[in-house]
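Good day; I would like, with your permission, to put a structural problem before you. What I wish to show you is a protein chain and, alongside it, a tokenised description of its three-dimensional fold. I would ask you to consider whether the tokens describe a fold that such a sequence might reasonably adopt. You will find the record immediately after this paragraph:
***
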Amino acid sequence: MSRADKTNVNNLVDHLFRNEFGKMVSFLTHSYGIHFIDDAEDIAQDTLVSAFHNWSYNGIPDNPEGWIRRVANNKALNILKKEQVRTRYAHGAKGHSSKSHSDDHNFLEEVQDSMLRMILACCDPSISSKSQIILVLSVLCGFSRKEIANALLDEEEAIKKRLFRAKKLLRENDFSPESLTGNELSPRLNVTYSCMYLLFNEGYNSSHHDDLIRKDLCLEAMRLTKLLVERYPNDTSANALLALMCFHVARFDERIDNSGAIVLFKDQNRSNWNEELIRKGDYYLANSAVGNDLNAYHIEASIAAIHCHASSYEKTNWLFIKKLYERLYKIKPSPIIQLNLAIVESQLSGIDSGIEQLNKLAIKESKLQKYHLLYATLGEFYSQKNERDKAISNFETALSLTSSSKEELLLKNKIASLQRS
């Protein structure tokens, strides 16, 4: 096989890992019981490795997704036969349940997507909310511990420990997704929304080295959230979250230029934003504006809507956005929100005010001290003030902290431009 063909196989397997890993784990765990979760992860990994070696030699099959699902299921059956543990897992396996189909609870009718069923199943109330999120992102969304740590602003070792404990609890509880009834779904939805939100964010601001945007993750998060909206059309949180996703995805094509370089938000051509998705965002945001419930998704979607409807960066209603961020911080205190507030403040009160707030944050918030966007923003502010040395210093710090090749290129270009001036 030529180098080009091997590159195509490698790219396809990488794509399938992001898109199919969680689906394979969901299918296998749903089929053979929650005790099978560790084996399911190993099988999913092994299947994708087998795909790479097989396809590199024999070529890519006509239906790659079907190939890996069939191989994964065969591997699962082989494990069950070899280890003679069919009885151990049979209570959770399709076709082996002692209950007839008509006796099952309504869970499969309520949510008809296997991955979404497993996400809801993993949101076990006996597990802490943060550990539930880690469990879902790792097991069902295929996130590495590093990606989860970046998303949650935590340490990889802490993520590893939480994940181990969460999986242990899930196995000990001997839980089957079919045991959920309608009333038992509601407490799990908030964590499910958090998982969809983090899944989308990882796609929109990817920690992956080569991809600033992982559209597959964003679209998968949108698909799953849309399933929730269809099942719970009056759920204001689900509608607000889907609105937020629509507004962000509407700007996809303008975030990267034709050469693959990052286009900063203020420099994007707004006429190229997707008007249909903005209208859909407006629709779901309007659907979410019912009753007195106001949560973080409503506020973030409202902020995104203001940006999408502003005629230019300069004419954005920054005062209203500031008020929304202040309200958001009361609901969900976060150093990232403080960072955004400092950026908004620079638009209202000038660059000096923004720099002052950012420098205070760098000292006060230890989690932001390893966050590259803090220093990239400081570099941009100092660059606008023509304070070359401070700008370069902050851009270099940001460069040392990012893992994205696209952001590395942007920062290197900015440093080089300042050095030439």
About this structure: Confidence is low (pLDDT under 50) at residues 94-111. The two ends are 49 Å apart (CA to CA). The longest helix spans residues 3-32.
